Amino acid sequence: VSQSRYEYKRIVLFSLQWCYGNEDKNYKEFHNILENGYIPNSVIKAVGRTKNSVFWLFRRHPFQITSKKYRDQENFLKNLKTKYKNIDWEFSSKLPIFSILKDVNAHVTMSSMTCYEAASYNIKSLILCPNFQKNGVYSFYFSDLVENKMALKQEANTSEIVKFVTSVKKRKIFSFDLSFRRLIRTISQFK
Known about the structure:
38% of the residues lie in helices and 13% in strands. It has helices at 41-49, 62-66, 71-83, 90-94, 97-101, 114-120, 143-147, 158-167, 176-189; strands at 10-15, 54-59, 87-88, 106-109, 125-127, 151-153. Strand 4, helix 6 (114-120) and strand 5 form a beta-alpha-beta unit. The radius of gyration is 18 Å and the shape is globular.
């Protein structure tokens, strides 16, 4: 029996993206970036290097869950989970994103817009896709998050990924509840 995810020092969310497996002719700029078509090998190595300290949640893109094209991805993730006990992909792909983010310390992705949802929870994201790096075809994406220090664009290097996931500090979460109470109070004053 593997450790409970709560026994690890940190929990990291990795948001998977479609189109890296050469399955869409319209997005050729994403073809052949990932050897396995799903997750950078450097991230898989980082999972191994952090096996005693970090629990990794691999979240499939909704399109990957519903499309028959991605049945191989399920087998890939099952094999990954057999090799590494510090991961989950089944529950983290089914649960609402906000129920996951409340427990997460860091977010890693190739290019998922989940970066914005993570930022709403004051969670920093690491963006690995070369197309989003400086001089990349999509380099302007996420520039607002980078400017506000809620995202970092970086080459998919195992040591740098490990450094990010083990050192990034989770900031205090914005309190929707408190804001909602203030809103109700303000509205009730106008009755």
